[in-house]
Amino acid sequence: MVRPGPRNLITDVDGILVGNAEDARAVTGATVVLPEHAAVAAVDVRGGGPGTRETDLLDPAATVDSVHGIALSGGSAFAQQ
Questions:
Q1: Which residues, other chains included, contact 48 with Cβ-Cβ below 8 Å and sequence gap of 6+?
Q2: I need a labelling partner for 66 at 20 to 30 A (CA). Which of 4, 16, 32, 34 fits?
């Protein structure tokens, strides 16, 4: 059985670095997941109206076999005004 790391976070995985920045006034931010070496990646997009871009490249039938980093960015479609 796989046991969680000491913090039960993605950063518990050896070789994975994570960075984050945000702008509370603009209600937006960015997160980067950066493996030390090329890594296999996949995505599971759910919901009726996802605001995704380029996630189709992570489909197993696509030609991308590894990633060197993943950027997650943007704000909410329901941002406060």
A1: none
A2: 4
